[in-house]
C-alpha cells in the first residue's frame, strides 16, 4: 500500500520554509511504500470572493476563479497526507497560505474531499517567539475544518515543526539545547520528525479506511432532540 504525501509551501519565495519542507519530505521518500511531491503557492492564487457558486463542475472544475488552484485541487484530492508550511507574516500565515485555505471551500462543499487525510504544520519566524505557534495553530484550524487529521511532534511536545530564520539560508543555523535528551535539536530535525510522523500515521489511517469507511458512520449518526 503506497501513500502519497504532498508538501505545500506557503512562502512567496524559495527560502527557509521551503528548506524545512524539503527536509520533511526527504524522510518520507526514505520510507518504504511512501512517496512525496512538493508544490509552492508562488504565483497567482486569488482570494475567495464568496460567489457561492462552488463547486462548479467537479472533478473538472471546482472554483469559479481560474488560477493556480486549478492545478492544486487534483493534487490535494490525490494526496493521502499533507504537510503545509508557512513563514510568519505579522504573527500568522502568509496571504498566499490564507488564500489557499479559503479556496479549499469547494472541496468541502463537494463532499468533504479532504476528509481523513493526515496533516502536519511547519512555521518559520524571524525570532524564537515570533508567531510560529499562532501560525501553526492557524494551519491546524484549517486542517480540522476540512477534515484533515493533524499530528504534532512527539519528541519536543510541539504542535508542529518550528524554525527561526531572519534571512535566506539562516534556517541551517537554527539549533538549541534539548534539555531532556542532553543534546542539540535543530529545526531540520523537527521537520524530519514531522515528515516521518505524518507518513506513519497516514499509513495507519489509510489501512484503517480499507476496513472502515467513516462516511458510513457519519451517515448513520443522527442527532435527535
Structural description of this entry:
- The protein is α/β, with parallel strands linked by helices and 225 residues long.
- The chain has a single domain (3-220), classed as Flavodoxin domain (Rossmann fold), CATH 3.40.50.
- The chain has helices at 16-30, 69-78, 95-102, 105-109, 132-146, 187-211, 214-220, and strands at residues 3-9, 34-40, 81-87, 118-125, 149-150, 161-164, 175-178, 183-186.
- Strands 1, 2, 3, 4, 5 and 6 form a six-stranded parallel β-sheet that branches.
- Helix 1 (16-30) crosses helix 6.
- The radius of gyration is 18 Å and the shape is globular.
- The N and C termini lie far apart (42 Å).
- The model is unreliable at 220-225 (pLDDT under 50).
Amino acid at each position: 500500500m503506497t501513500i502519497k504525501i504532498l508538501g505545500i509551501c506557503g512562502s512567496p519565495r524559495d527560502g527557509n520554509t521551503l528548506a524545512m519542507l524539503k527536509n520533511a519530505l526527504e524522510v518520507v521518500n526514505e520510507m518504504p511504500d511512501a512517496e512525496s511531491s512538493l508544490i509552492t503557492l508562488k504565483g497567482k492564487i486569488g482570494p475567495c470572493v464568496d460567489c457561492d457558486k462552488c463547486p462548479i463542475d467537479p472533478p473538472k472544475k471546482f472554483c469559479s476563479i481560474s488560477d493556480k488552484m486549478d492545478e492544486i485541487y487534483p493534487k490535494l484530492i490525490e494526496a493521502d497526507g499533507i504537510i503545509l508550511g508557512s513563514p510568519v507574516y505579522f504573527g500568522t500565515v502568509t496571504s498566499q497560505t490564507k488564500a489557499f485555505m479559503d479556496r479549499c471551500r469547494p472541496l468541502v462543499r463537494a463532499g468533504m474531499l479532504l476528509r481523513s487525510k493526515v496533516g502536519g504544520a511547519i512555521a518559520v519566524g524571524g525570532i524564537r517567539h515570533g508567531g510560529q505557534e499562532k501560525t501553526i495553530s492557524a494551519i491546524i484550524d484549517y486542517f480540522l475544518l476540512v477534515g484533515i487529521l493533524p499530528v504534532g511532534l512527539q519528541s519536543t511536545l510541539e504542535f508542529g515543526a518550528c524554525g527561526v530564520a531572519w534571512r535566506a539560508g539562516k534556517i541551517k543555523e537554527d539549533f538549541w539545547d534539548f534539555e531532556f535528551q542532553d543534546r542539540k535539536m535543530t529545526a531540520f530535525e523537527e521537520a524530519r520528525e514531522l515528515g516521518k510522523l505524518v507518513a506513519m500515521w497516514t499509513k495507519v489511517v489509510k489501512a484503517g479506511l480499507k476496513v472502515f469507511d467513516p462516511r458510513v458512520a457519519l451517515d448513520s449518526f443522527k442527532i435527535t432532540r
